[in-house]
Amino acid sequence: MPRYGRKACWLWLVWAGWAWGPLAHADGALPNARVLGVNEGALSYCGSRDPAAAARLRQRIEQLVQGASAQQLAEVRNSDEYRKAYDSVADFVAKIDEHNVTRFCAAR
Question: What is the pTM of this model?
Fold first, then answer.
C-alpha cells in the first residue's frame, strides 16, 4: 500500500473511533477500551502542542467515561485492548513531522 494510503487509513480509523465512541457508550456500558485508548493517546500527544485540540479531546474523553466508576475505568485502562490502542497512537504520532503536528491535532 502506498505510504499516503496508509496514513489516510490510520487517520480514518482514528477519526472513526472518535466519532463512534460516544455512540458506543450511550447505553451506559463501560467505555470502549480501544476508543478510550485512542483518545487518551492523542491527548497525550496533542496536550502540550495544541491547547484547543487538547480541550476538545478532554471533552470527548469526559463523555466517554461519563457514568463509569473509578474501578471500571481502571479495569478498562489496564486492558490489553486499551494498551494496544494507546500504544498504536503513540507509535503513529512519533512518525509525524513537526510541521504536521497542528494538522494532526486539529483534526481531532
Answer: 0.72
